[in-house]
Amino acid sequence: MASILSVRGISKTYAGGHQALGTIDLDVAEGEIFALLGPNGAGKTTLISIICGIVNASSGTVTVDGEDIIKGYRHTRSTIGLVPQEISTDMFERVIDTVALSRGLFGKPRDDAHIEKVLRELSLWDKRFAKVQELSGGMKRRVMIAKALSHEPKLLFLDEPTAGVDVELRRDMWELVRRLRDGGATIILTTHYIEEAEDMADRVGVISGGKLILVEEKTALMKKLGRKSLHVTLSEPLGAIPAGLSSWSLTLADDGHMLDYQFDAHAEDTGVSALLSRLGELGIGYKDLNTEESSLEDIFVDLVHRPAREAAA
């Protein structure tokens, strides 16, 4: 599938010497949902701001829908919709006016039917004549999304779109994201709610310390890096792990009532059968067994902290 976004050699160093981004290369395919994950200060917002033309890169190029963002800025900016983290709009404007104005700023002709469609999809139609300042925080967030959708962008950036909103609104927003993707839009989102990325994204990128440390299809990432945990509930508690179990990396939990064993579910020999046999040989009885698979959050935390662990080693 063709790339709607191509980032090559993008970096950003500010005047004071702070390097916000190292060298970033990234391609995003048309019609996909791409989740960009990373801790605070990792460079997510800086990268998005460069692509959207808000911040100038120190080096590199960005192409959106086949056009360079500098040479073809008129086309690329009308192709992009951005929902920033911060709510920033004229609080004294009526909802319908501020959304319609956003469409006009991108040189698009007046289209009342489209504005109505966007407001209805975001449950804002009943509030169309209300001033933005009169709305709740969640409704203001919906207005920001409506403004970003007003000019019918092909590429939509959602920078922490559900931060600080209630569960019901968050669910509504993700349903809207799915409909937008089904309609042909490409979605790039950053989020702290990793379960949303796990549920929504086609691919995941992990950024840390200004470097894009991994880009992978979500299912492939979880298959490649995901681990399982075996929880063995013991018949009698142990004060310590016996020396006879030293071949396995085990930990005691629940005041000695449980043995935990992490293993690679895709390995040819997981070690689970041998562990259970060894427990029998040592006369260690158990009442229950259950397994738990790593979540995307577990994988994310491991990836972000792995460089520090490797450096310490």
Automatic annotation (TrEMBL):
Pfam hit, one: ABC_tran
UniProt keywords, alphabetically: ATP-binding, Nucleotide-binding, Transport
InterPro entries reported in the protein's UniProt record: AAA+_ATPase (IPR003593), ABC_transporter-like_ATP-bd (IPR003439), ABC_transporter-like_CS (IPR017871), ABC_transporter_ATP-binding (IPR050763), P-loop_NTPase (IPR027417)
A GO term, aspect molecular function: ATP hydrolysis activity
CDD domains xrefs: ABC_DR_subfamily_A (cd03230)
Entries under SMART domains matching the protein: AAA
Domain ABC transporter, first and last residues per copy: 5-234
Name of the protein: ABC transporter ATP-binding protein
Organism: Sphingobium nicotianae
Taxonomy of the source species: Bacteria, Pseudomonadati, Pseudomonadota, Alphaproteobacteria, Sphingomonadales
